[in-house]
TrEMBL record, chain A:
Keywords: Signal. Residues 40-375 form the Leucine-binding protein domain. This is ABC transporter substrate-binding protein. Residues 1-26 form the signal peptide. It comes from Tessaracoccus palaemonis. The lineage of its organism: Bacteria, Bacillati, Actinomycetota, Actinomycetes, Propionibacteriales.
Automatic annotation (TrEMBL), chain B:
InterPro entries: ABC_transp_permease, BCAA_transport_permease. PANTHER family: BRANCHED-CHAIN AMINO ACID TRANSPORT SYSTEM PERMEASE PROTEIN LIVH, HIGH-AFFINITY BRANCHED-CHAIN AMINO ACID TRANSPORT SYSTEM PERMEASE PROTEIN LIVH. It is a multi-pass membrane protein. The keyword Transport applies. Pfam families: BPD_transp_2. This is Branched-chain amino acid ABC transporter permease. Keywords: Amino-acid transport, Cell inner membrane, Cell membrane, Membrane, Transmembrane, Transmembrane helix, Transport. Its main location: membrane. The chain crosses the membrane at residues 12-35, 65-84, 93-114, 144-161, 191-213, 228-250, 262-280. Belongs to the binding-protein-dependent transport system permease family. LivHM subfamily.
Length: 393, 294
């Protein structure tokens, strides 16, 4: 732990050295970030607007701007308007860190939002801690983002559930709702997300009295799964847990149905893409369930109001990232409105004390590890279309 | 037993695809001693041509297959003309490096135009998506078509090489290009023809894979290309029947490794076979030891 802290300090120091040339406007002593004067409160958005995961960042920022516009239209926060300063980190962790420095030391934002992915978000946390500016991610789901098992990242928060929670919930769903007592796992061995989900599923499924019949593995980029599926077909089991991304999951489900495997497929939020339907075909996507942050068929009025407003504002059906971005904007505004004063320290305290926040992706309290305690949706597909959604957790 | 037969069907389909790609490697090597690393990417282009024909031009499976073979033929000849012919008299390493360069060029040009995300082939007609059962073993029509198309193309190739004038010229050039030239054979034309046939087979393999796995992407040629290369070396590079045997052996080995529960090692095993064959019998299964004259 000591070692880890030292590397962290090292990273912070390196980052600080980069920022030192531009850090002249930072408050001496670095206590409490920058206080806000005037009629506007500046908030930063540091997102993947281009590069490998650009769709995540763009969708998040669309959600954030919509939330902030709504808040400003309704009079702002405590009479002050929110102003977004938005940058493109090009889906690159080093770029994200540089921009975080710029936002916190030059632009003097009160709160940072993003990046969208766990890796990039983790990269900026040391900068946030050093400058004492709270940062919030809507979609960094890796388990160790805000809490690595021993230390809490003081100024980092997220409003999405973490990966192992998805596995746990799916195991409960399989045992309680589908009455499954035996399962097969097919995981992507080149991917921490997939392995984390598989481990969490196994632990909980066995707690529920179930057995894991067999566990098969593949590597991202594979296209031929007939062999492992043929192996599975020879065994008896109730469900298949497939915690992978849509590009392989689509092919696995299709090839399994072609081989005559009819057991339900269960997965995580990695399934949430129109490409899944393209790859697997509608007829293969029956009895397929996956955990997700949000579903457009959720009848909750908060969700339906959001969908209606989003369609009016942007002319398109909102995705899970739009919804998560929207909640980030609302969460930040809510914390600022409850803060005792407009400093990073005060807003951080307000965020940590959040209770009963009502968002599109669920209602939650913030726990001691800066993770939300929220429900999760289990979405069922029928002929490739979302047919049922159930809140669990 | 059922499971074994099912796995056998799986391995025959996979092996047919490797064999089709390996034939192109082996013929090109046989004739100009060049390992054409861009060959796997010709296969990828074939898959995209098939996709474009089916999705945008709404052609049927066989029409798309032929269209892909034609486009890949042109591409193969073009690659040879532009990238390899000027280096005909250079060192072999220069040609090899060029081949790698051409490979990367094709991959990333394609990625620029179609994006990096995988694409799915359109919905196939019933005669392609259906399946039937023989004693508990499910055989998909696609698998029958893949094996069938592969076998027909291999027979056609064998006919061309053994019975036609062009085939005779190919065999002559592969034995001794200088002597062939003295006998009045156009060496350049023969080499172009070899690239044309090899690329057409790779294009066909691309469409078959697109239909079979329903997912194509601009980097899909890399791993199958390397495995087909291993297949060609296994059978004895430069020997046409060797490429066939190699293709089915590699397909079978891969399936066998996964079917006993070591799916993560399947690629490793294929390359272990390459190392082993290079140590034990570098000329390949059907290769003969030819003493070099000094």
């Amino acid at each position: 732990m000591n070692l880890r802290r030292r590397t962290l300090l090292g990273a912070t120091a390196a980052v600080a050295a980069v920022g030192a040339t531009t850090a002249c406007s930072a408050k001496p002593g670095g206590s409490g970030g920058s206080a806000v004067t005037g009629d506007t409160i500046k908030v930063g958005a540091n997102y993947e607007l281009s590069g490998a995961v650009a769709t995540y960042g763009q969708a998040s920022v669309d959600g954030i701007t919509m939330a902030i516009d709504e808040i400003n239209a309704a009079g702002g926060v405590n009479g002050k308007k929110l102003e977004i300063i938005s940058y493109d980190n090009k889906s690159d962790a080093a770029e994200a860190t540089t921009l975080a420095n710029k936002l916190f030391t030059q632009d003097n934002v009160l709160v940072g939002m993003g990046p969208a992915t766990s890796g990039n978000f983790k990269a900026i946390i040391p900068v946030a801690n050093k400058n004492r500016v709270p940062v919030v991610s809507g979609s960094a789901t890796a388990d160790d983002v805000t809490w690595d098992g021993s230390t809490v990242q003081e100024f980092a928060f997220r409003i999405c559930f973490n990966d192992s929670f998805q596995g746990t919930i799916m195991a409960k769903f399989a045992a309680e709702n589908l009455g499954a007592s035996s399962a097969v796992i097919i995981k992507d061995n080149s991917n921490d997300y997939s392995k984390g989900l598989a481990d969490a599923f196994t632990t909980e499924f066995e707690n529920q009295g179930g057995t894991i019949v067999t566990s098969e593995a593949y590597v991202a980029g594979d296209t031929d799964f007939n062999t492992i599926l043929t192996r599975i077909k020879g065994q008896s089991f109730d469900v298949i847990y497939l915690p992978g991304y849509y590009s392989e999951a689509g092919l696995i489900i299709k090839q399994a149905r072609d081989l005559g495997i009819t057991a339900p497929f269960l997965g995580g939020d990695g399934f949430d893409s129109p490409t899944l339907l393209e790859l697997a075909g509608a007829s293969a996507l029956n009895d397929v369930y996956f955990t997700n942050h949000y579903s457009s068929i959720d009848e909750d009025p908060t969700v339906q109001d959001f969908i209606k407003a989003f369609k009016e504002a942007k002319g398109a059906e909102p995705s899970a990232f739009n919804a998560l971005g929207y909640d980030v904007g609302k969460f930040v505004a809510d914390a600022i409105s409850r803060a005792s004063e407009l400093t990073g320290d005060a807003v951080q305290k307000a965020m940590a004390e959040t209770k009963g926040f009502v968002g599109v992706t669920g209602t939650f309290d913030m726990d001691g590890h800066h993770n939300p305690v929220k429900t999760i949706l289990v979405i069922g597909l029928k002929d490739g279309v979302q047919d049922s959604s159930e809140k669990v957790g | 037993m059922t499971e074994f037969l099912q796995q056998l069907i799986n391995s025959l389909s996979l092996g047919s695809i490797y064999a089709l790609i390996a034939l192109g490697y082996t013929m090109v090597y046989g004739i100009i001693k060049l390992i054409n690393f861009a060959h796997g990417d010709v296969y990828m282009v074939g898959a995209y041509v098939g996709y474009a024909c089916m999705t945008h031009l709404h052609l049927g499976f066989f029409e798309s297959l032929i269209a892909a073979m034609i486009i890949c033929t042109i591409l193969g000849v073009l690659i040879e003309r532009v990238a390899y012919r000027p280096l005909r008299n250079s060192t072999r390493i220069a040609a090899l490096i060029t081949a790698i360069g051409v490979s990367l060029l094709i991959e990333y040009t394609m990625m620029y135009f179609v994006g990096a995300d995988p694409r799915a082939y359109p919905e196939m007609p019933a005669y392609l998506t259906g399946s039937f059962e023989v004693g508990g073993v499910i055989i998909r029509n696609q698998q029958v078509i893949i094996i069938g198309v592969a076998v027909v193309l291999m027979i056609a190739l064998q006919f061309i090489v053994k019975k036609t004038k062009m085939g005779k010229a190919m065999r002559a050039v592969s034995q001794d290009p200088d002597a062939a030239r003295l006998m009045g054979i156009s060496v350049d034309r023969t080499i172009s023809f070899t690239f044309a046939i090899g690329s057409a087979l790779a294009g066909a393999a691309g469409v078959l894979v697109g239909v079979y796995y329903n997912s194509i992407n601009p980097l899909m040629g890399i791993i199958p290309g390397l495995k087909a290369f291993v297949a060609a070396v296994f059978g004895g590079i430069g020997i046409i029947p060797g490429a066939l045997i190699g293709g089915y052996v590699i397909g079978g080995a891969e399936t066998l490794v996964s079917s006993i529960g070591y799916s993560l090692f399947k690629d490793g095993v294929v390359f272990a076979i390459l190392i082993l064959i290079l140590i034990v019998k570098p000329t390949g299964l059907l290769g003969k030891n030819v003493k070099e004259k000094v």
